[in-house]
Amino acid sequence: MATANIAEVFSGIQGEGMLVGERQVFVRFSGCNLRCRYCDSRWTWDQHEDCRVERIPGSSSFVFVRNPLDATRLLSIVSDLRGEENLHHSICFTGGEPLLQGDFLAAFIPMAAHLFPMTYLETNGTLPDKLSQVIDHIDIVSMDIKIPSTCGVKPDMEAHRRFLLAADRKHVFVKVAVNAQTPAHEVAEVAALTASVDRAIPLVIQPATVEDAADRIAPAALMRLQAAAKEKLETVRAIPQTHKMLGAL
Ligand code: SF4
Protein backbone atom coordinates (compact mmCIF):
# COMPACT_ATOMS: atom_id res chain seq x y z
CA MET A 1 0.00 0.00 0.00
CA ALA A 2 1.23 3.51 -0.83
CA THR A 3 2.51 5.55 2.12
CA ALA A 4 3.26 9.25 2.61
CA ASN A 5 5.37 11.46 4.80
CA ILE A 6 2.92 13.98 6.28
CA ALA A 7 3.91 17.03 8.35
CA GLU A 8 0.53 17.84 9.91
CA VAL A 9 -3.22 17.38 9.65
CA PHE A 10 -5.75 19.80 11.11
CA SER A 11 -9.16 21.40 10.64
CA GLY A 12 -8.95 25.16 10.16
CA ILE A 13 -9.86 28.24 8.17
CA GLN A 14 -8.31 28.80 4.78
CA GLY A 15 -6.28 32.01 5.00
CA GLU A 16 -5.17 32.55 1.41
CA GLY A 17 -6.51 32.89 -2.09
CA MET A 18 -10.00 32.71 -3.56
CA LEU A 19 -11.36 30.45 -0.80
CA VAL A 20 -10.22 32.64 2.08
CA GLY A 21 -12.46 32.13 5.11
CA GLU A 22 -13.69 28.65 4.16
CA ARG A 23 -13.30 25.83 6.66
CA GLN A 24 -11.11 22.96 5.46
CA VAL A 25 -9.35 19.87 6.67
CA PHE A 26 -5.68 20.44 5.79
CA VAL A 27 -3.25 17.64 4.96
CA ARG A 28 0.25 19.14 4.80
CA PHE A 29 2.81 16.98 3.01
CA SER A 30 6.52 17.03 3.84
CA GLY A 31 9.14 17.85 1.22
CA CYS A 32 9.46 20.59 -1.38
CA ASN A 33 11.35 20.89 -4.66
CA LEU A 34 11.86 24.66 -4.19
CA ARG A 35 13.69 26.67 -1.54
CA CYS A 36 11.88 30.02 -1.47
CA ARG A 37 13.59 32.76 0.51
CA TYR A 38 10.53 33.74 2.57
CA CYS A 39 9.08 30.24 2.90
CA ASP A 40 6.78 30.13 5.93
CA SER A 41 6.72 26.33 5.84
CA ARG A 42 10.46 25.61 6.04
CA TRP A 43 9.83 23.03 8.69
CA THR A 44 8.11 20.90 6.04
CA TRP A 45 11.22 20.69 3.84
CA ASP A 46 12.58 17.73 5.78
CA GLN A 47 10.92 14.41 6.39
CA HIS A 48 9.54 14.09 9.91
CA GLU A 49 9.57 11.09 12.16
CA ASP A 50 6.04 11.98 13.28
CA CYS A 51 3.02 13.71 11.76
CA ARG A 52 1.31 16.09 14.16
CA VAL A 53 -2.48 15.99 14.30
CA GLU A 54 -4.38 18.79 16.03
CA ARG A 55 -6.71 17.23 18.59
CA ILE A 56 -9.25 20.06 18.83
CA PRO A 57 -9.54 22.60 15.97
CA GLY A 58 -7.79 25.86 16.85
CA SER A 59 -6.22 24.47 20.04
CA SER A 60 -2.60 24.00 18.85
CA SER A 61 -2.66 20.84 20.94
CA PHE A 62 -1.35 17.87 19.00
CA VAL A 63 -1.04 14.14 19.07
CA PHE A 64 1.79 12.59 17.08
CA VAL A 65 1.48 9.74 14.61
CA ARG A 66 4.53 7.89 13.28
CA ASN A 67 5.48 8.50 9.60
CA PRO A 68 5.08 7.21 6.98
CA LEU A 69 1.29 6.99 7.05
CA ASP A 70 -0.62 4.58 4.88
CA ALA A 71 -3.84 5.65 3.18
CA THR A 72 -6.09 3.81 5.61
CA ARG A 73 -4.51 5.50 8.64
CA LEU A 74 -4.72 8.96 7.05
CA LEU A 75 -8.32 8.33 6.05
CA SER A 76 -9.18 7.56 9.66
CA ILE A 77 -7.49 10.82 10.81
CA VAL A 78 -9.26 13.08 8.30
CA SER A 79 -12.55 11.33 8.95
CA ASP A 80 -12.23 12.05 12.68
CA LEU A 81 -11.37 15.71 12.00
CA ARG A 82 -14.29 16.08 9.65
CA GLY A 83 -16.68 15.06 12.41
CA GLU A 84 -20.39 14.59 11.99
CA GLU A 85 -21.28 18.25 11.39
CA ASN A 86 -21.14 19.51 7.85
CA LEU A 87 -18.62 22.30 8.55
CA HIS A 88 -15.98 21.77 5.88
CA HIS A 89 -15.97 23.28 2.43
CA SER A 90 -13.27 20.88 1.24
CA ILE A 91 -10.19 18.85 2.04
CA CYS A 92 -6.98 20.75 1.24
CA PHE A 93 -3.76 19.04 0.15
CA THR A 94 -0.85 21.37 0.80
CA GLY A 95 2.83 21.39 1.70
CA GLY A 96 5.68 21.63 1.12
CA GLU A 97 4.80 20.43 -2.36
CA PRO A 98 2.13 17.74 -2.19
CA LEU A 99 2.64 16.59 -5.79
CA LEU A 100 6.09 15.23 -4.87
CA GLN A 101 4.05 12.41 -3.32
CA GLY A 102 1.77 12.11 -6.34
CA ASP A 103 1.54 8.31 -6.24
CA PHE A 104 0.11 8.46 -2.74
CA LEU A 105 -2.26 11.31 -3.62
CA ALA A 106 -3.55 9.40 -6.65
CA ALA A 107 -4.44 6.50 -4.36
CA PHE A 108 -5.68 8.52 -1.38
CA ILE A 109 -7.87 11.24 -2.91
CA PRO A 110 -10.46 8.85 -4.38
CA MET A 111 -10.72 7.20 -0.94
CA ALA A 112 -11.26 10.53 0.89
CA ALA A 113 -13.26 12.48 -1.69
CA HIS A 114 -16.65 11.15 -0.59
CA LEU A 115 -16.11 12.60 2.92
CA PHE A 116 -15.96 16.22 1.70
CA PRO A 117 -17.95 18.36 -0.73
CA MET A 118 -14.76 19.20 -2.66
CA THR A 119 -11.05 18.48 -2.99
CA TYR A 120 -8.55 21.33 -3.12
CA LEU A 121 -4.86 21.30 -4.10
CA GLU A 122 -2.32 23.97 -3.10
CA THR A 123 0.80 23.66 -5.22
CA ASN A 124 3.81 25.57 -6.48
CA GLY A 125 2.78 24.58 -10.01
CA THR A 126 6.16 23.30 -11.17
CA LEU A 127 5.31 19.61 -11.65
CA PRO A 128 2.80 19.35 -14.51
CA ASP A 129 3.45 15.67 -15.13
CA LYS A 130 2.61 14.89 -11.51
CA LEU A 131 -0.59 16.94 -11.75
CA SER A 132 -1.83 14.64 -14.49
CA GLN A 133 -1.80 11.76 -11.94
CA VAL A 134 -4.40 13.45 -9.73
CA ILE A 135 -6.27 16.13 -11.67
CA ASP A 136 -9.25 13.83 -12.34
CA HIS A 137 -9.91 13.77 -8.58
CA ILE A 138 -9.25 17.45 -7.78
CA ASP A 139 -12.00 20.09 -7.92
CA ILE A 140 -10.01 23.28 -7.23
CA VAL A 141 -6.33 24.08 -7.84
CA SER A 142 -4.48 26.98 -6.20
CA MET A 143 -1.26 27.39 -8.18
CA ASP A 144 1.50 29.64 -6.89
CA ILE A 145 4.03 31.29 -9.16
CA LYS A 146 7.13 32.13 -7.14
CA ILE A 147 8.87 35.27 -8.36
CA PRO A 148 12.46 36.45 -7.78
CA SER A 149 11.67 39.52 -5.64
CA THR A 150 9.89 37.54 -2.91
CA CYS A 151 11.22 34.02 -3.29
CA GLY A 152 14.66 34.40 -4.86
CA VAL A 153 13.82 31.84 -7.53
CA LYS A 154 13.35 32.40 -11.25
CA PRO A 155 10.06 30.82 -12.30
CA ASP A 156 9.98 28.08 -14.95
CA MET A 157 7.22 29.70 -17.00
CA GLU A 158 6.97 26.82 -19.47
CA ALA A 159 6.31 24.38 -16.60
CA HIS A 160 3.70 26.77 -15.17
CA ARG A 161 2.03 27.12 -18.58
CA ARG A 162 1.79 23.34 -18.99
CA PHE A 163 0.50 23.06 -15.43
CA LEU A 164 -2.22 25.67 -15.99
CA LEU A 165 -3.28 24.06 -19.26
CA ALA A 166 -3.79 20.76 -17.42
CA ALA A 167 -5.56 22.43 -14.47
CA ASP A 168 -7.83 24.67 -16.54
CA ARG A 169 -10.46 21.97 -17.00
CA LYS A 170 -11.10 22.29 -13.25
CA HIS A 171 -11.46 25.41 -11.10
CA VAL A 172 -8.01 26.98 -10.93
CA PHE A 173 -6.55 30.27 -9.80
CA VAL A 174 -3.02 31.64 -9.68
CA LYS A 175 -1.45 33.23 -6.63
CA VAL A 176 1.66 35.42 -6.51
CA ALA A 177 3.25 36.81 -3.33
CA VAL A 178 4.63 40.35 -3.59
CA ASN A 179 6.59 42.70 -1.36
CA ALA A 180 7.95 46.27 -1.45
CA GLN A 181 10.76 45.19 -3.79
CA THR A 182 8.53 43.54 -6.39
CA PRO A 183 8.99 45.21 -9.78
CA ALA A 184 5.89 45.62 -11.93
CA HIS A 185 7.29 43.44 -14.70
CA GLU A 186 7.38 40.34 -12.46
CA VAL A 187 3.63 40.50 -11.82
CA ALA A 188 2.97 41.51 -15.44
CA GLU A 189 4.77 38.34 -16.61
CA VAL A 190 2.62 36.23 -14.28
CA ALA A 191 -0.54 37.90 -15.60
CA ALA A 192 0.55 37.45 -19.23
CA LEU A 193 1.37 33.78 -18.70
CA THR A 194 -2.00 33.21 -17.05
CA ALA A 195 -3.86 35.09 -19.80
CA SER A 196 -2.05 33.06 -22.47
CA VAL A 197 -3.87 30.00 -21.09
CA ASP A 198 -7.21 31.61 -20.16
CA ARG A 199 -8.13 35.23 -19.41
CA ALA A 200 -10.83 33.95 -17.04
CA ILE A 201 -8.34 32.32 -14.63
CA PRO A 202 -8.34 34.57 -11.52
CA LEU A 203 -5.09 35.99 -10.16
CA VAL A 204 -4.61 36.62 -6.44
CA ILE A 205 -1.85 39.09 -5.58
CA GLN A 206 -0.83 38.31 -2.02
CA PRO A 207 1.13 40.89 -0.01
CA ALA A 208 3.87 38.87 1.69
CA THR A 209 3.66 38.71 5.48
CA VAL A 210 6.99 40.28 6.47
CA GLU A 211 8.70 41.11 9.75
CA ASP A 212 10.59 44.13 8.43
CA ALA A 213 8.22 47.01 7.66
CA ALA A 214 10.56 48.10 4.86
CA ASP A 215 9.61 44.93 2.98
CA ARG A 216 5.85 45.55 3.26
CA ILE A 217 4.28 46.65 0.00
CA ALA A 218 2.47 50.01 0.22
CA PRO A 219 -1.23 50.09 -0.68
CA ALA A 220 -0.62 52.38 -3.67
CA ALA A 221 2.05 50.06 -5.08
CA LEU A 222 -0.25 47.08 -4.58
CA MET A 223 -3.02 48.85 -6.47
CA ARG A 224 -0.64 49.62 -9.35
CA LEU A 225 0.26 45.93 -9.63
CA GLN A 226 -3.42 45.01 -9.57
CA ALA A 227 -4.30 47.59 -12.23
CA ALA A 228 -1.56 46.36 -14.57
CA ALA A 229 -2.65 42.72 -14.16
CA LYS A 230 -6.28 43.72 -14.76
CA GLU A 231 -5.34 44.77 -18.28
CA LYS A 232 -4.76 41.11 -19.08
CA LEU A 233 -7.09 39.17 -16.76
CA GLU A 234 -10.78 39.36 -15.88
CA THR A 235 -10.35 38.85 -12.12
CA VAL A 236 -7.43 40.15 -10.06
CA ARG A 237 -7.74 40.35 -6.28
CA ALA A 238 -5.32 41.58 -3.62
CA ILE A 239 -5.71 39.36 -0.54
CA PRO A 240 -3.29 39.14 2.43
CA GLN A 241 -2.66 36.00 4.51
CA THR A 242 -5.58 36.18 6.92
CA HIS A 243 -4.57 33.12 8.99
CA LYS A 244 -1.42 35.02 9.98
CA MET A 245 -3.62 37.86 11.29
CA LEU A 246 -5.62 35.34 13.32
CA GLY A 247 -2.54 33.58 14.64
CA ALA A 248 -3.99 30.36 13.24
CA LEU A 249 -2.18 27.37 11.70
S1 SF4 B 1 7.11 26.24 -2.76
FE1 SF4 B 1 6.06 26.75 -0.84
S2 SF4 B 1 6.76 25.21 0.64
FE2 SF4 B 1 8.17 25.13 -1.11
S3 SF4 B 1 9.88 26.48 -0.53
FE3 SF4 B 1 8.42 27.72 -1.71
S4 SF4 B 1 7.05 28.66 -0.18
FE4 SF4 B 1 8.13 26.95 0.83
What's the multimeric state? single chain
Class inferred from helices and paired strands: alpha/beta
Shape annotation:
globular
- What is the average per-residue confidence, as pLDDT, rounded to a whole number? 95
Q: According to CATH, what is the class?
A: Alpha Beta
CATH architecture: Alpha-Beta Barrel
What is the percent of helical residues?
Answer: 25-40%
Low-confidence stretches: none
Please tell me about this protein's structure.
The chain is of the alpha/beta class and 249 residues long. It has one domain: Aldolase class I (TIM Barrel, Alpha-Beta Barrel), CATH 3.20.20. The chain is 31% helix and 24% strand. It is built from eight helices and twelve strands. It has a ten-stranded mixed sheet. Strands 1-6 form a two-stranded antiparallel sheet. A hairpin with a 7-residue loop joins strand 4 (50-54) and strand 5. Helix 3 packs parallel to helix 5 (157-167) and helix 5 (157-167) crosses helix 6. The radius of gyration is 18 Å and the shape is globular. 39% of the residues are buried. It binds iron/sulfur cluster. Iron/sulfur cluster binds at residues 32, 34-36, 39, 41, 95-97, 124, 146.
